[in-house]
Every structure is written in C-alpha cells, then in structure tokens.
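As a point of orientation, let us examine one representative protein, giving the amino acid sequence and backbone structure tokens.
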Amino acid sequence: MVHLPHQGKLRRDVKEEALDDGDAAAQAEASPFHKRSRLALQHWSTDGGSVSNQQSSQHGFLDEPSPLGLRLKKSPSLVDLIQMKLVQAGKAKDVQHSGTASASEKLKASNFPGSVLRIGSWEWVSRYEGDLVAKCYFAKHKLVWEVLDGGLKSKIEIQWSDICAMKVVSPENEPGILEIALSRQPLFFRETNPQPRKHTLWQATSDFTGGQASIHSARQE
C-alpha cells in the first residue's frame, strides 16, 4: 500500500525546495569565482569588439593612406582647389625670383660724367668725354672718381661711412654741383698693365692731388 503525503505538505516541500535552489543560485552568483568568470566574459567581449574595430580601421587606413587614418574624398572641386593653390605658389615663387633679380640689378654701379673735379687747390678739368667719371657702387657702398691721364686711369675711392657732409646743387638747365666732406683721407689707386677687353687692374698709390685730398673736401661739377 502506498502512502501519499498530504497535499499541503507536498506543496510546502516543493516551495521550500524552490527557495533552497534560489538561495543556492544567489550564493553561487555572489561567489568570487562567478564574478571573475563574468568579468572575464565581459572583458573578452570588449576586446573582441575592439579588435574588430581596429581591423576595420586598419582596412580603412590601407584603403586611403593618411597619417591620421582619415578618409579623403577626392571630389572635383577639391582637385581644382589644389591645382589653383599650386599655380599660385608657382607664381609667387616666380615673383620672388624676379624681385631678387631686380634688386641685384639695382645694386649695379651708376656712372655719370663730370666736367670739373676740385679738391682744395687741386683741379682736374675734363678735356674729352670719359676722362673724368664718377661712379657710385651701391653694393660696395663706395663713391669713386676716375681720372684718365696719359692713357692710364687713376681713381679716388671713398667709403660711404667716411662721408660726414654732402651738398647737392642742381639748377635747372645747368650742370649740377656735388660737394662732400670726409672724416678721413680717401684711398688712391692707379691702373697697372692695361689690356683691351679686360678688367682694370688697380694698384694702391700715393695721393696724386698734391696732398689736397687729405685736408680738403671734394667738389665736382
């Protein structure tokens, strides 16, 4: 004969057993091992996502080379803009080059003829074209008077820094006058071994104005 338990007691036992299973599951979930396992699972999932993202970004970087790994859409307007910038840069470089060339051209010496050169009591009067020439060397900062006498040239060389006073008189329709005063004696040179179609060779020489250039200012007309 089988004895069946009381129905109320059976329900109570089943309920208690369910509670026991729930407590066991809660305890298991609260255990350090379960926490570590869940964290490891989450970390693995996150790493997997990051690896996937890194792979996709690497593929994008390879598809479009860029230091920052960014994609650049080469639209026709962007290409036109780049070409325009390149053309402008080339023009700016050409302008700078031409400006440098023009500046170097401006630094070339300026020559102008003279009729009379007076230094104290010494005087040189031009007798024909080219025998008395003043030259201004902008690059070297020099002022030079050249005198042609007996087939040989002589010159007086003055540094700009030695000029302590200057006066220019330029009347209309008349020859101009340039007067300068120096703080120190100028340098004197004489041409040596002249040869046609070659640069003039100069040799330092003594004051050929009879010492007047050492104590007086120069006056040119």
In short: The chain has three domains: 7-61, 73-106, 110-220.
